[in-house]
Amino acid sequence: MLRLLLKSWDKKIMKIGYVGLGKMGLGMVRLLLEKGHEVVATDPDENACKEAAAAGAEIVPTIEGFKDRLAGEKFIWIMVPHQIVDNVLADLGAILNPGDVIMDGGNSNYKETMRRGAELKEKDLVFMDVGVSGGPSGARNGACMMIGGARDKFDKYETLFRDLSVKDGYAYMGETGAGHFVKMIHNGIEYGMMQAIGEGFEILKESAFNLDLNEVTRIYNNGSVIESRLVGWLQNAYREEGVDLSAISGEVSHSGEGQWTVEEAKNCRVSDTEYKKIPVPVIEASLQFRIDSTGYPSYTGQVVSALRNQFGGHSVKK
After folding, report:
1. Which of 179, 188, 133, 178 is nearest to 269 (CA)?
2. In percent, how much of the chain has pLDDT > 90?
3. d(C-alpha 121, C-alpha 117), whole Å
4. pLDDT in the model for residue 253
5. CA triplet 128, 179, 142: central angle to 5 degrees?
6. Contact 174, 148 (CB under 8 A)
7. Dihedral, CA atoms, 217, 220, 223, 227, nearest 10 degrees?
8. 190 catalytic, yes or no?
9. Is-catalytic flag, 266?
10. Of 74, 153, 190, 205, which one is the catalytic site residue?
11. Phi, psi dihedrals of residue 299, rounded to the nearest 5°
12. Are 317 and 248 in contact (CB under 8 A)?
């Protein structure tokens, strides 16, 4: 007991600002609070703010509220759609002081992250980026985090990253933009893996063997070479929806990161002055499948949609 108490006393407790209490942000705030940190949060959704307050967060109506409630060097985590990051940064720029740190935890394009980092550096603000993998469940219980930005700030706030991640599930990737770059490629790989699973299970379903697909997912996910969280999530989807996935749409949405990966591969920056075209036929085909699936649903699409729902909480019902 004494050892545990001493360990808790040694823990570095932090107080941060948090912008965005959506399905990822709210879970992350709850996890931070459970780890003993203090959070001042804001979001236009009143219900989300009430939930965060009930968990122990201090709520401010607008970003301006951070100014008086965060002393010393401020650390602000933003978890918002990439389309509104610039608006949030403009609001933060009006209330932050030189040396304050902003962390973008959303799925922003790494080129935009690099631009934002350079612009904020001119204002003596520090911009960092983190790619977060694991979906809402990871945000709530511990995610995988890929962090870019100033190394000294990574070291200073490492306790936060450790507390928000699964065991050994975070790492410093490099300069500003590196975290989002690594996460972008992660999502491109994810597209290809999900596509292969969808195609394989459509073949299994249509074969003459009358296979029990529940049993196939179980055995695939028990020591096989393709054992994975994705196959496990498909197993969950079959249990919840039935193997026909009759309530799941066979048209598959895409949120941007796969497209960004394909575009990057066509003109990949390998140095400050050199660019290279890298073939990515699997990722490109999986992206094109999603684009072409509009109006042309398929069982492969239903499997991919079911997986998107399992790990990302995306709406995929017909």
Report:
1. 178
2. 91
3. 6
4. 87
5. 95
6. yes
7. -90
8. yes
9. no
10. 190
11. -70, -35
12. yes
272 Cβ contact partners less than 8 Å away, ≥ 6 residues apart: none
State whether the Cα torsion 76-80-107-13 is positive or negative: positive
Question: In 56-109, where does DSSP find H-type helix?
Answer: 66-69, 85-93
Residue 40: name the closest of 13, 64, 69 by CA: 69
- Taking alpha carbons only, the member of 20, 65, 257 closest to residue 146 is 257
In DSSP terms, 248 is beta-bridged to 317
Quote the CA–CA distance of 258 and 171 in Å, as a whole number. Answer: 22
pLDDT at 7: 42
Which residue positions in the chain have pLDDT lower than 70? 1-11
Q: Please tell me the predicted confidence (pLDDT) of residue 215.
A: 98
User: Residue 270 is encoded by which pair of tokens?
Assistant: 């390998």
As given in the structure block, the two tokens for residue 75 are: 């650390």
Q: Hunting for tokens 């649903």 — which residue is that?
A: 297
Residue with structure tokens 């799941």? 248
CA distance 117 to 101: 11
What does R_g of the chain's alpha carbons equal in angstroms?
A: 21
- Per-residue three-class SS string for 301-318: HHHHHHHHHHHHCCCCEC
* Dihedral sign computed on CA atoms, order 43, 59, 147, 178: positive
Residue 11 confidence (pLDDT): 63
Question: What are the strands, taking DSSP E only, across the chain?
Answer: 15-19, 38-42, 58-59, 75-78, 101-104, 126-133, 143-148, 165-174, 268-269, 275-276
The neighbour count for residue 151, using CB atoms within 10 Å, is 12
Parallel, antiparallel or unpaired: strands 143-148 and 58-59: unpaired
Asked whether 149 and 172 are in contact (CB, 8 A), the reply is: no
Given 183, 205, 251, 257, the catalytic residue = 183
Pairing relationship of beta strands 275-276 and 268-269 according to DSSP bridges: antiparallel
Give yes or no for a contact between 60 and 42, defined as CB atoms under 8 angstroms apart.
yes
Residues in the chain: 318
Q: Taking CA 111 as the corner, what is the angle to CA 114 and CA 287, rounded to the nearest 5 degrees?
A: 150
Are the C-beta atoms of 133 and 186 separated by less than 8 Å?
A: yes
| CA gap 19, 100 in Å, rounded | 15
